[in-house]
């Protein structure tokens, strides 16, 4: 399956998930707002999400998938769309069962410990909310205990999803986040309380319910794929030892952006007023929309693809694949970043300014969104460049670079927070992402593992110019739609739709005129072709 076609499959399902996520966040803003209750829930939800990014999706995507893919390659398994006959899944299943046998008891023990010691963990993260009432700290601890079983469930989901991705069944794992949003939306619509605190408590319970739904979905999908994992007695076999050795560096490398966000959240909780955590959350959710559509899709497809190409000694094909991945990233993320920076306020006002979410909340969230979005292309490039190391079994280099970027983020936060507040936090996060992406690119190039081909070199500047032209159109159009932003929801939605359409047409026209892409290239990429 071609990179664009596979990415489009994942991106389409991710689009459904992200649209539902926007519905969820809009309802959350309406029912809970941006205050004490929302801050407490977002702290509670941030903690299992951090460990999910570090030890579940991040670690398994980076360490487990290449090893499992090589196991399948050694067994003669063919991927969907590849020529040749397939083999049996005995070796792959045995490896996955050995991994599950060791990791499951560790995950259970870790989850129990985190629930038992939720109070000191939340205090370390927030300082006990020194500028707020004791109730805020108590609620954050309570919500954390309710949400943390999600980590155990989503970790197993990530293992099963890694198996399915290695088998080329990308869509199944891409559809799993839809269940999270469905569960949270159901909680907001059907079971929300009369107060923001009661509604936030229901949301905490809905997170764990979502983990159960995702677990059942992946178990069923693996059964359909011929993978039924049995529980075994834990044994540290050589492959499991190798996986555990890779997990630590892989987790930190893959979770650098999440760690930066946790650092930002912790500083906001300690030094900024009520609502700052919520402003950063709402802004990051919008920034994550194109990141999820493009970055997750490309990263999911790219790692097993590069692993198979390198295992087959197809270094030239791997280089070509990564060049086209970067080209696709620039084609999609440069205009998205420009639009989120230039038109942040009308976007936020249309989506969130309802019920308990005020006009002042919109202005604050839009400022954070503009700052976050400056780093959007870098966030996605990290997803594309990191597999260049992991596919070669190198999980150490990305973690060193990630640690350096985290230090940049910390210094930036401590420098900018005093003058720019939460906007400074968002800005330093974007800066750290560019440092991370730049260092990954430079290291791959210096080692001779990646070289920019002529097509990418030619098209990159044209895409930047097309995005700049689109920004000019958006700046002019913003003035035209501004009077409608204080009207009804329907009028705001219509004005925002017209604004997005004008920007999209301007970008496509400029990119096509500058020959940054051709219809023939896109059609060729969308066709299914042999590996």
Mean pLDDT: 81
Q: Name the structural class.
A: mainly alpha
* SSE arrangement, N to C: HHHHHHHHHHHHHHHHHHHHH
The number of E-state strands comes to 0
As a percent range, the share of helical residues equals over 70%
List strands and helices in order, with pairings.
Layout: H1 3-31, H2 36-75, H3 90-116, H4 118-126, H5 134-147, H6 149-166, H7 170-190, H8 196-224, H9 238-254, H10 256-271, H11 276-311, H12 315-342, H13 344-352, H14 359-373, H15 376-385, H16 387-390, H17 396-420, H18 422-446, H19 454-481, H20 489-513, H21 519-526
Describe this structure in words.
By secondary structure, this protein is an all-alpha fold. The protein has one domain. Helix content is 82%, strand content 0%. It is built from 21 helices and no strands. The chain has helices spanning 3-31, 36-75, 90-116, 118-126, 134-147, 149-166, 170-190, 196-224, 238-254, 256-271, 276-311, 315-342, 344-352, 359-373, 376-385, 387-390, 396-420, 422-446, 454-481, 489-513, 519-526. Helix 2 (36-75) runs parallel beside helix 11 and helix 11 (276-311) packs parallel to helix 14 (359-373). The protein starts with a helix and ends in a 5-residue tail after the last helix.
């Amino acid at each position: 399956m071609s990179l664009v076609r596979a990415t489009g499959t994942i991106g389409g399902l991710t689009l459904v998930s992200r649209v539902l996520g926007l519905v969820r966040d809009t309802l959350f803003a309406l029912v809970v707002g941006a205050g004490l209750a929302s801050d407490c829930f977002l702290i509670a939800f941030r903690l299992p999400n951090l460990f999910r990014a570090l030890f579940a999706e991040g670690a398994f995507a980076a360490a487990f998938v290449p090893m499992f893919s090589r196991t399948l390659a050694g067994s003669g398994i063919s991927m969907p769309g590849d020529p040749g006959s397939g083999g049996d899944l005995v070796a792959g299943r045995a490896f996955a069962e050995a991994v599950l046998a060791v990791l499951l008891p560790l995950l259970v023990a870790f989850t129990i410990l985190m629930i038992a010691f939720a109070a000191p963990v939340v205090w370390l993260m927030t300082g006990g909310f020194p500028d707020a009432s004791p109730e805020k700290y108590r609620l954050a601890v309570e919500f954390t205990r309710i949400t943390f079983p999600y980590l155990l469930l989503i970790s197993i989901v990530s293992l099963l999803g890694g198996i399915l991705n290695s088998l080329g069944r990308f869509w199944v794992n891409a559809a799993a986040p839809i269940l999270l949003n469905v569960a949270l939306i159901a909680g907001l619509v059907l079971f929300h309380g009369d107060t923001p605190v009661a509604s936030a408590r229901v949301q905490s319970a809905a997170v764990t319910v979502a983990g159960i739904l995702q677990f059942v979905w992946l178990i069923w999908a693996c059964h359909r794929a011929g993978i039924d994992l049995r529980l075994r007695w834990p044994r540290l076999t050589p492959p499991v030892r190798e996986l555990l050795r890779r997990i630590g560096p892989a987790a930190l490398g893959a979770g650098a952006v999440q760690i930066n966000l946790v650092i930002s959240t912790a500083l906001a909780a300690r030094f900024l007023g009520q609502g700052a955590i919520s402003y950063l959350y709402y802004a990051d959710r919008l920034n994550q929309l194109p990141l999820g559509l493009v970055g997750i899709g490309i990263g999911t497809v790219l790692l097993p693809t590069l692993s198979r190409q390198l295992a087959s000694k197809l270094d030239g094909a791997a280089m070509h694949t990564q060049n086209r991945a970067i080209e696709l990233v620039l084609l999609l993320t440069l205009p998205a970043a420009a639009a989120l920076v230039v038109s942040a306020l009308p976007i936020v006002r249309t989506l969130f300014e309802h019920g308990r979410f005020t006009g002042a909340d919109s202005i604050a969230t839009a400022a954070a969104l503009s700052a976050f979005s400056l780093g959007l292309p870098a966030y996605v490039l990290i997803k594309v460049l990191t597999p260049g190391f992991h596919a070669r079994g190198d999980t150490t280099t990305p973690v060193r670079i990630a640690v350096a970027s985290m230090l940049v983020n910390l210094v930036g936060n401590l420098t900018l927070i005093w003058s720019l507040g939460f906007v400074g936090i968002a800005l330093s996060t974007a800066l750290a992402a560019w440092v991370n992406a730049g260092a990954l690119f430079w290291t791959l190039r210096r080692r001779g593992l990646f070289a920019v081909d002529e097509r990418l070199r030619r098209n990159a500047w044209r895409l930047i110019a097309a995005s700049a032209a689109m920004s000019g159109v958006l700046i002019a159009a913003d003035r035209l739609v501004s009077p409608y932003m204080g009207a009804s929801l329907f009028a705001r939605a219509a004005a925002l739709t017209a604004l997005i359409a004008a920007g999209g047409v301007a970008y496509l026209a400029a990119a096509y005129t500058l020959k940054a892409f051709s219809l023939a290239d896109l059609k060729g990429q969308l066709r299914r072709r042999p590996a």
